[in-house]
Design goal:
The chain contains 27 helices and 57 strands. It has 993 residues and is α+β, with helices and mostly antiparallel strands. The protein has seven domains: 129 residues, Immunoglobulin-like (Sandwich); 118 residues, Immunoglobulin-like, CATH 2.60.40; 143 residues, no CATH class; 133 residues, Immunoglobulin-like; 178 residues, Rossmann fold, CATH 3.40.50; 182 residues, Rossmann fold (3-Layer(aba) Sandwich), CATH 3.40.50; 36 residues, no CATH class.
Length: 993
């Protein structure tokens, strides 16, 4: 063992106290020493011990360190009659910041040498001997200010500075001088609100040039105010003859420098940590106390919660628990209900406003140690049947409030040991056998197995039990079944849960996960054996989610879900591994767009550029045979492959990079998770061209860096957009390239090229995620349908279009397609265009004005310097269910309307001005676009080539091992065993090296 661990250290400047529990008593006489980290010089020192029933305390006098040389000295201890020196270390987290690792006070040993106790990154105890200046930089966050001296006088005893000190008079401040060698001295002084008097006699010991400043300590903050002067005015008033003012001579042989600095005082934000302790939940409140070490009153701080990856804040009411001491704060249930939403996480902060800066601290339990994850969960407050608020200590020791279901909470704090022993489907009967127990061997009563509808958790199907066997160690083996032909599975997803009763009244739902290797392989590859197809061509089958959860889905059978296609897939797989991989393997880039059905978006224009300017590069475009946009690819057909063809599947397996304006999944049969190809697709390197500019719609849950849709390169249009991608999507700087979008390369103003003799307006709304997969009757009842149908039948809109001889093109979003027949045009001035009937680019170039709600096509119009109107009839609902990265009240680049009449008035005003942009929107363009030069595809191509080696770099051995099904199965089965956890982490660390 290299370390001896103590429980706690205390330091008051005069004495160091090392504290052990009595159980860890060090028997015999131990030697203690400090070793210089560089020179390895050793100094042995004395100590004495005091004991009581609970603690053993080692007392060390600080005066023994008076002659230490400059540098870092680590503490060592040696057992009796041995020569084995061990480092003294503390049982504290390794996540402490520098300010938390350095302990106040800083103690003077000589005029130029000071010492401060601190912890190394490995939590070893050390004493740092250095100048006061350098130690202050370690201990404190330093804020530098500047203050103007208006005049200097001297009398027999004092040097008098005429300076405004009104903001300091209520504080305990000090005046110090320091030189270029970091020597620092406190000065004797007297002061009032307008004058600072420094006693001249104390300057006699100073030699050389010195700087004067005021210092004020506030907890871990050191405010330092330096002086400056108005040079010309000062020379005139003080009769100084220097061509450049640099100093004031006070006493013969002594020069005091007064720094000349810009008098501007910027407002600063100071970041750091605030340590709290005793985080608990009781009486539907979350309590915590301010740590004694922070030497501040909890009432001095304003506490707030900030949503993870977001700017949303909730300032908390000032609730103090006076019964348990004024330094205890609590968060009430009522406030948590304001921000409650499943799977969201909020970080806890504290802030304090000072005169010229804002102090913002991340609140955490920084001095506690957590040996496992279970103790990081501090209880829960139940908000609804489906939701609770949980205070959680993160790995960085910061406090988060996490919203989850009660079942999720128990999954973390009392995990279940669950195993699928067998799963079969015979004549549409799905049979399942599971083994279940709790990892803490707690007793429970098994109630049953349920199927829970993922979108509507209140929809539950209780499965009949065939058999239940009680095993030793509080485990049960249960057999159940479900008739896939008789149960009405509402589309789309149903998840398996086991239901148990704990402590007599506590009902828990436990998600069923598969740790059975054979079951995983069978569900993936024997799809026809496990599928039930009904007479309406709906297929129902069990499958495993990305995380290994067992579920059932029911949906319309896809076009590529037949035996012929599956034979095609496995033939391509075999062909690749037998022949192509060794004989014909070339670096291939595959490009596709939405569902591999279109050739009109960023994917197509990037492919077009690659084909025309870099034909030697093997870039292929994937398109479904017979689709409308196939004609756009006629000139490039030697590099076109048909979707799900044998050639496509071979190229997909062999491809180096997939490039798309949509997710990778659009390059394969949508929704199909079974078969051998899906795993290959998920593992491919990905360049995300984007469908449109980010800003108006939150999509980070889909394209977050930690999902299967993560990209090696993420294309952005501006630094503004890059900041969104880094902040909300979790991408590092080098993975985001600011290039512009490929389809912008062909944008030209074609407002004169009308399909009739009328100017055109484009109405192009985006979809609403809360309407996904609803039936037609439900869609017609939605506010979304009603708003646009009302607009299309608006009498004032009809009059406006007729009077101005305008054509309104209503372009239907692809997800509108099942409901397009519900929309009817009201007159010949309105044309409804279905998805695929016309190219969006062409419509945008022809149009004089765009009306949209939150669609990214608004950026295309803005790029062309044409006016945009935003129709925000449901902005509150949109922000609740979808959200925006932009402030929709301040950041938009077009006018806003909230109802049909307002909308008509706005577009009428724009028409009267000749469809010209407003100047205020013109002024914003530079912030939203970096390039307007038709070279976006070229930049993207060059970026991919530049980073091709890095993009194609083979994944690490660790990642390859972790992705093996067998490894996942073994880890899920045995991860709760202590020895597996301990040695598993060591193996992972070895593989990372």
């Amino acid at each position: 063992m290299k370390f001896i661990y103590f429980n706690k250290v205390e330091w008051d400047g005069n004495q160091i106290r090392l504290i052990l529990s009595s159980k860890q008593d060090l028997n015999g006489t131990w030697e203690m020493s400090v070793w210089n980290r560089k020179s390895k010089q050793i100094k042995i020192f004395d100590y004495f011990i005091t004991k009581d029933d609970k603690l053993t305390i080692f007392h060390i006098d600080t005066n023994q360190f008076r002659n230490l040389k400059m540098g870092n000295w680590d503490f060592y201890i040696k057992p009796p009659k041995k020569n084995d020196w061990k480092k003294i270390s503390l049982k504290v987290p390794t996540t402490l910041s520098q300010q938390q690792r350095y302990f106040e006070p800083i103690v003077s040993m000589t005029s130029s040498r000071y010492v401060c106790l601190n912890l190394t990154n490995s939590n070893a105890l050390s004493i740092h001997c250095s100048s006061k200046d350098k130690l202050e930089e370690k201990v404190y966050n330093i804020i530098n200010y500047n203050k103007q001296i208006h005049h200097i006088e001297e009398n027999k005893e004092c040097l008098i500075f005429y300076v405004d000190l009104s903001s300091y008079m209520s504080s305990d401040f000090e005046v110090v001088v320091r030189n270029e060698f970091h020597e620092t001295y406190k000065l004797l002084f007297s002061a009032n609100e307008a004058e600072l008097h420094l006693y001249k006699k104390q300057f006699e010991k100073f030699k050389g040039n010195w700087f004067i400043s005021i210092q004020l300590k506030k907890n871990k903050v050191l405010e330092r105010t330096n002086f400056y002067v108005d040079e010309a005015k000062f020379q005139e008033e003080n009769s100084l003859k220097n061509t450049k003012f640099e100093y004031v001579q006070v006493v013969e042989g002594t020069i005091l420098l007064i720094e000349q600095k810009d008098p501007f005082r910027p407002t600063k934000i100071l970041y750091g940590e605030l340590n709290v302790e005793d985080v608990t939940v009781r009486d539907n409140r979350i309590f915590f106390s301010l740590s004694y070490d922070d030497n501040a009153n909890v009432k001095d701080w304003n506490f707030f919660l900030e949503r993870n990856k977001n700017d949303e804040k909730l300032y908390l009411q000032k609730n103090f628990d006076n019964l348990n001491g004024e330094n205890t704060f609590y968060i009430d249930q009522d406030q948590l209900e304001l921000i409650a939403s499943k799977n969201l996480s909020w970080n806890l902060y504290a802030e304090k406003q000072h005169d010229d800066y804002l102090e913002v601290r991340r609140v955490g339990d920084y001095y506690s140690t957590y040996t496992g994850d279970l103790k990081r969960y501090k209880g829960f407050i139940k908000l609804t049947d489906q939701l609770c608020a949980v205070p959680f200590i993160s790995k960085s020791q910061a406090i988060r409030i996490v919203f989850m279901s009660v079942d999720q909470y128990y999954k973390h704090t009392s995990p279940a040991e669950i195993s699928i022993k067998s799963l079969t489907v015979k004549k549409h009967i799905l049979n399942i056998s599971i083994k279940l127990g709790l990892s803490n061997k707690q007793s429970f009563k098994f109630l049953g197995i349920q199927l829970v509808q993922r979108k509507e958790p209140k929809d539950v199907i209780n499965l009949p039990l065939k058999n239940l066997i009680q095993k030793r160690g509080n485990k049960v083996i249960v057999t159940s079944y479900v008739d896939l032909s008789r149960v009405d599975f509402i589309p789309f997803y149903w998840d398996f849960f086991a239901v148990i009763l704990v402590n007599g009244n506590e009902k828990r739902k436990i998600r069923l996960y598969s740790d059975n290797y054979l079951v995983i392989k069978k569900l993936r590859h024997l799809m026809f054996k496990y599928n039930y197809l009904d007479s309406n061509e709906y297929v129902t089958y069990p499958y495993l989610t990305v995380n290994g959860g067992l579920s059932i889905t029911r949906r319309k059978k896809g076009d590529y879900e037949n035996r012929t296609n599956k034979i095609n897939e496995y033939s391509a797989y075999v062909f690749y591994h037998l022949f192509y991989k060794y004989l014909l393997n070339e670096p291939v880039w595959l490009v596709h767009e939405k569902y591999s059905e279109t050739a009109q978006d960023n994917g197509f224009y990037f492919f077009k550029y690659s084909y025309e300017y870099h034909y030697q590069r093997k870039v292929y475009y994937v398109i479904k045979k017979g689709t409308e946009d196939e004609r756009n690819l006629e000139k490039y057909k030697d590099r076109v492959v048909y979707f799900m063809s044998f050639k496509h599947l071979v190229l997909l397996i062999s491809s180096r990079v997939i490039i798309s304006s949509e997710a990778k999944g659009h390059g394969y049969a949508w929704r199909v998770s079974q078969g051998v190809i899906r795993d290959y697709l998920n593992s491919k390197k990905f360049v995300f061209l984007q469908h449109g500019v980010l800003g108006l719609k939150k999509v980070d849950s889909t394209f977050d860096y930690n999902t299967q849709n993560s990209a090696e390169l993420f294309v952005a249009s501006s630094e503004f957009e890059k900041r969104i991608i880094k902040k909300y999507f979790g991408y590092k700087d080098d993975r985001v390239v600011v290039t512009g979008l490929p389809r912008w390369d062909v944008l030209d103003d074609k407002t004169a090229d009308h399909i009739s003799n009328r100017k055109e307006i484009l109405l192009m709304p985006t979809w609403r995620n809360w309407l996904d997969e609803v039936e037609k009757e439900e869609f017609i009842e939605s506010d979304y349908y009603k708003a646009y149908n009302q607009l299309l039948h608006s009498e004032s809109l009809r009059e406006f279009l007729e009077n101005n001889s305008l054509l309104l093109n209503f372009y239907v979003h692809p997800k509108f397609m099942p409901y397009v027949s519900s929309f009817t045009k009201s007159n010949e001035h309105i044309k409804i265009i279905q998805f695929g009937e016309a190219k969006v680019n062409e419509l945008l170039m022809r149009s004089s004005l765009l009306i949209t709600d939150y669609s990214s096509v608004s950026w295309e119009m803005y790029y062309q310097k044409k006016p945009v109107v935003f129709y925000h009839f449901d902005v509150a609902q949109y922000m609740t269910y979808q959200g925006s990265y932009m402030d929709l009240k301040k950041d938009l680049f077009g006018d806003v309307a909230t109802n049909p009449e307002d909308l008509v008035n706005v577009i009428s005003g724009i028409a009267e001005k000749g469809f010209k942009e407003d100047q205020k929107f013109i002024n914003k363009r530079g912030s939203y676009f970096k390039f307007i030069d038709k070279k976006n595809s070229e930049r993207i191509f060059n970026e991919i080539v530049l980073k091709e080696k890095e993009i194609n770099k083979k994944q690490s051995l660790l990642k390859s091992i972790k992705e093996l099904d067998l490894v996942k199965v073994l880890w899920r089965k045995y991860k709760n065993i202590d020895i597996i956890q301990r040695y598993g982490k060591k193996i992972i660390l070895k593989l990372k090296q």
